[in-house]
Amino acid sequence: MDTWESLRAECLTCQGCSLAETRTNVVFGDGAEDAEILFIGEGPGQHEDEQGKPFVGRAGKLLDDMLEMVNLDRTKVYIANIVKCRPPQNRDPLNVEQDACIDWLRRQTALLRPKIIVCLGRIAAKSIIKKDYRITAEHGQWFEKNGVQMTAIYHPAALLRDVSKRPDTFEDMKSILAKAKELCEHTEF
Ligand code: URA
After folding, report:
1. Which stretches within 113-152 are classed as H helix?
2. In Å, what is the CA distance from 122 to each residue of 17, 67, 93?
3. Is 82 exposed, middle or buried (0-12, 13-18, 19+ CB in 10 A)?
4. Which residue's CA is the closest to the ligand 1 atom numbered 7?
5. pTM (2 decimals)?
6. What residues contact residue 161 under an 8 Å CB cut-off, 6+ apart?
C-alpha cells in the first residue's frame, strides 16, 4: 500500500511519457492529505512547472478566490491534475499522456478516499466523469461513481477568458459547499 511520501517520491522520478523530457518539475498535487474534497485540473502550466505546485498562476489565483468565496480554501481540500507534467505551449494533454499518467491520480484518490470530486474543466471531466461530458450543458450537475459524488465546473482559465461564465460558476460553487456540508465528516466549512 502506498503512503503519501512513497507515492510522491515515486511520482517525482516518473519517466512514463515524453513530457518528462521537457518538464522542470513534476507537479504532484497539494493540499490536505486527509481532505474530503478533491479538485482535479488538467495539467500544469508554466508557473506550476516552475514551482512544482498546482494552480499557482493567474488561473490559480482565481481558483483561490472562488474557493474562498464559499468558505473553502486550499487547506481544506486537495488539488491535483490529470497529467503531472506540463504539456509544451500549454496544449491539451494528449490521450497517450493522460493514459500514461492516470495511475498516479488513481493512487492519490485511493489514499485520500474523497467524498466529493470536482473536475476543473472539460478535460478532467471527460477523463473522470464520462467520455462524452459536455461542460457547457452539464457543469454543476452531480454524478455518482463508486460511492463518490462528482461534478465539474468551468476551468478557471476559461473564467479568465470569459467573465460571463462566472455567475454560473458561483452557483456551482455554492452547490459544492452544500454537498460538502451534507457529506463531509471531519472538515469544518
Ligand atoms: N491549469 C490546470 O489545469 N492545472 C494547473 O495546475 C494549473 C493550470
Report:
1. 122-128, 135-138
2. 22, 19, 12
3. buried
4. 55
5. 0.98
6. none
Distance, CA of 93 to CA of 25 (rounded, Å): 16
CA–CA separation, 105 and 89 (whole Å): 23
With a 6 Å cutoff on the Cβ, whether 114 touches ligand 1 is no
| Cα(103) to centroid(ligand 1), Å | 18
Mutational pocket test of ligand 1: of 42, 50, 67, the residue with most ligand atoms within 8 Å of the beta carbon: 42
pLDDT tens-digit series, residues 26-36: 999 999 999 99
Pairing of strands 143-145, 148-153: antiparallel
Model confidence over 39-69: pLDDT tens digits? Answer: 999 999 999 999 999 999 999 999 999 999 9
Q: Which tens digits make up the pLDDT trace of 128-186?
A: 999 999 999 999 999 999 999 999 999 999 999 999 999 999 999 999 999 999 999 99
Residue with the three cell numbers 518528462: 20
